[in-house]
């Protein structure tokens, strides 16, 4: 360790990845970092991965599917160990890159029939909330409202 410190040596991560077949990196492409929900998810994933010796490489495509495909290609070219994509709405180029690379993929925010997914059902959540609120239906105090951010894409 002393020699490493004295020589200011930095291990070549790409050489290590080539030799071991693992770079201990996971790539994640999110629509934006401007929305706190994505930032919180990135933070949670980064913390969990770090606890297991992995680094998270992040890209944000700002709702541009062509940019997303370029970012996915760049991440795959670094030989990441896995990739996380948000949602199922992606350019065919992106899906093709993922299939051809054989890099493990996790789909977040939506269920996918061919890949492992971490998803939630907004319709079911809304239905359950409405059913719960129905118990107050006779009350004059009941007012149901929805606050939503528009123009965020199909995710």
Explain what you see.
With 155 residues, the chain is of the alpha/beta class. The protein is 43% helix and 15% strand. It is built from six helices and five strands, in the order H-H-E-H-E-H-E-H-E-E-H. The chain has a five-stranded parallel sheet, sandwiched between helices. The radius of gyration is 21 Å and the shape is elongated. The mean pLDDT is 85.
Keywords:
155 residues, alpha/beta, five-stranded parallel β-sheet, 5 strands, elongated
Helix content: 40-55%
Arithmetic mean of pLDDT: 85
Biggest β-sheet strands, sense, barrel: 5 strands, parallel
Overall outline:
elongated
**End-to-end separation:** 47 Å
Judged by helices, strands and strand pairing, the structural class is alpha/beta
Radius of gyration: 21 Å
Low-confidence stretches: none
Beta-strand content estimate: 5-15%
Summed up, the helix count is 6
Order of H and E elements? HHEHEHEHEEH
- Spatial strand arrangement across the major sheet: 2-1-3-4-5
Q: How many beta-strand runs?
A: 5
